[in-house]
Amino acid sequence: MKRLTIPAKLSRLTQPSSASHIWKPANCPTRIGTYNSSITNCVTGQTSKVPPVRRATPAGVNSTVADANFTRSETSVNATSVSTTCAGKVVNKRIPPYDFKARYNHLLERHKALKEKFEEKCEQVGKLETLPEQFKEVQSHLASTTEELKNTKTEKEYLQRQVKSQQQNIELLTDSLTSITGEFEKLKRAYKKLQREHDELSIEVPKVREQSADLVDKNFKLMESIAICKEQLFRSNVERKELHNAVMDSHGNIRIFCRVRPPLDFERHKLLCGWNYVDESTLEIFNCDPLIKAKNKGHSFSFDQVFHQSSKQEDIFQLVAPLIQSALDGYNVCVFAYGQTGSGKTFTMDGTIGNPGVILRTIDLLFDSIKAYRNLGWQYQIKVQFLEIYNEVLYDLLDNEPKELEIRMTRSEKNGIYISNITQETVENADRLRQLMRIAKMNRATAATAGNERSSRSHAITNIELIGSHAEKHCTSIGSINLVDLAGSESLKTSMRLNETKNINRSLSELTNVILALLQKQDHIPYRNSKLTHLLMPSLGGHSKTLLFINVAPFQDCFNESLKSLRFAASVNQCKIAKARRVRILNTSNFQ
Ligand SMILES: Nc1ncnc2c1ncn2[C@@H]1O[C@H](COP(=O)(O)OP(=O)(O)OP(=O)(O)O)[C@@H](O)[C@H]1O
């Protein structure tokens, strides 16, 4: 049989319940033959004197056993003491040693009792044997419970985080709810206000409706009167044009302005001619050469206007502006600047930055007038081209590419001219036109660098075409402006570049010839003798208004050239070109 090792804790359970009973473990040595007067405690190792103890037998056996381990030798000499209970009192009865039967019975009883006890203990031990298994079970249960606890903790943390974020959400939602509620309240107030206004307006509506009907009626009447006014305005405008033209005609269709430029700062030391400005249209020039002073007498010239040295650009343009107005009314206008090199032609036509000349001021005036004309029902289209005539060759100043430009006649119009291959641009505003002018100037300057002072040896022409249309009246008005900065006139004697000078002088004298032929009303006008006169044919004939600036330098060393220019201008001044008439109004109106 397997021997059980019983732990100290459990061993106490297996001891007899009576303190007087001596339990002896298997490994504890037994002193046989002693009457248990002394017992060695196997647990503590102490030895104590224990007197014989009277004990109750298990299962109600009423006998007293001195010791379960007494020996045969003892039984043979000693009587056995047995305790019995009689009427609630313990009675010790001694079994005499010779009463074997009684002693046998007594032993049988004791054996039975011990056996029962032994079985009971075995049962207890059996139960104890299952403890490790139970322990294992409990351990595994504990492990699974720990795992569960861990999972539960993780879940708890996750749920706590969820709770926290939900709480934040709730806070945000609460905030937005608060602001929405505020907005809602505001809207409610606004709505109420609007409703009040609406109620008030609802009361007003019938009155306003009534007033509106009145106004519609009045408006209708006003529209009628506006139509009448418009008609009158249109007629007045036509009349104004006629009158304007009459005034211009009264000045002559070719006008000559003379401008004497001031000496510049670095020219102060130079000897000046004598200048006498008799009135606003007459000037006298005196030769101040000290060698011929004695016989000097003044040369007097009269023109439409004389501008002295301190005249301003704006004073000059004031008198040019009516001509520009005529171009918008459908006339061909030509403005020339004629004079010796350095006499101020470019200054008069182009001007400088901050002191614009005729061309830039014309651009501004045109676009301002077009705006005003729009109110009268006129729409204008403006087309521009810039060209240069150098040594009788035409150059496109808006395109640097070398190409051949030719003057051609239009089929539709008598004396109508156009240039093949030239760049013509339709401009929408003054800025773009100014920009194109800058490009043209730049291209001219570039060519000048390459062509040895070409800019002052060439004619520069700015051509602006003005096409007006009146949709209501089915009228079209086509006018044009040619602004010409002529090449400087120069004496062949003083010229360094003979060929250029010959060409310039030839084209300038052809210009004089054309003007004189016109003056003499010759049948044949030699327009085609030079590129310049050919090109300007429509602007020089009887159907145009021409303005000639004669620019002169104030210096004594320019006296001869100045006199020449002034004489040329004086001869032109006498030219009575046939009364200018507006030829290019193409319309179906009764008012023309
Ligand atoms: N009325 C004026 N007031 C002030 N400066 C002027 C005036 N006229 C001309 N000038 C100046 O005189 C100089 C010569 O003028 P400009 O270049 O206009 O002469 P030009 O006749 O065009 O010469 P070119 O035939 O060589 O081109 C320039 O510096 C110009 O600014």
From TrEMBL:
<dbReference type="InterPro" id="IPR036961">
    <property type="entry name" value="Kinesin_motor_dom_sf"/>
</dbReference>
<feature type="domain" description="Kinesin motor">
    <location>
        <begin position="253"/>
        <end position="575"/>
    </location>
</feature>
<comment type="similarity">
    <text>Belongs to the TRAFAC class myosin-kinesin ATPase superfamily. Kinesin family. KIN-14 subfamily.</text>
</comment>
<dbReference type="GO" id="GO:0005524">
    <property type="term" value="F:ATP binding"/>
</dbReference>
<feature type="coiled-coil region">
    <location>
        <begin position="101"/>
        <end position="211"/>
    </location>
</feature>
<dbReference type="InterPro" id="IPR027417">
    <property type="entry name" value="P-loop_NTPase"/>
</dbReference>
<dbReference type="GO" id="GO:0007018">
    <property type="term" value="P:microtubule-based movement"/>
</dbReference>
<keyword id="KW-0067">ATP-binding</keyword>
<dbReference type="Pfam" id="PF00225">
    <property type="entry name" value="Kinesin"/>
</dbReference>
<dbReference type="GO" id="GO:0090307">
    <property type="term" value="P:mitotic spindle assembly"/>
</dbReference>
<feature type="binding site">
    <location>
        <begin position="339"/>
        <end position="346"/>
    </location>
    <ligand>
        <name>ATP</name>
    </ligand>
</feature>
<dbReference type="InterPro" id="IPR027640">
    <property type="entry name" value="Kinesin-like_fam"/>
</dbReference>
<dbReference type="GO" id="GO:0003777">
    <property type="term" value="F:microtubule motor activity"/>
</dbReference>
<keyword id="KW-0505">Motor protein</keyword>
<keyword id="KW-0547">Nucleotide-binding</keyword>
<dbReference type="GO" id="GO:0005874">
    <property type="term" value="C:microtubule"/>
</dbReference>
<keyword id="KW-0963">Cytoplasm</keyword>
<dbReference type="InterPro" id="IPR019821">
    <property type="entry name" value="Kinesin_motor_CS"/>
</dbReference>
<dbReference type="InterPro" id="IPR001752">
    <property type="entry name" value="Kinesin_motor_dom"/>
</dbReference>
<dbReference type="GO" id="GO:0008017">
    <property type="term" value="F:microtubule binding"/>
</dbReference>
<protein>
    <recommendedName>
        <fullName>Kinesin-like protein</fullName>
    </recommendedName>
</protein>
<keyword id="KW-0175">Coiled coil</keyword>
<keyword id="KW-0493">Microtubule</keyword>
<keyword id="KW-0206">Cytoskeleton</keyword>
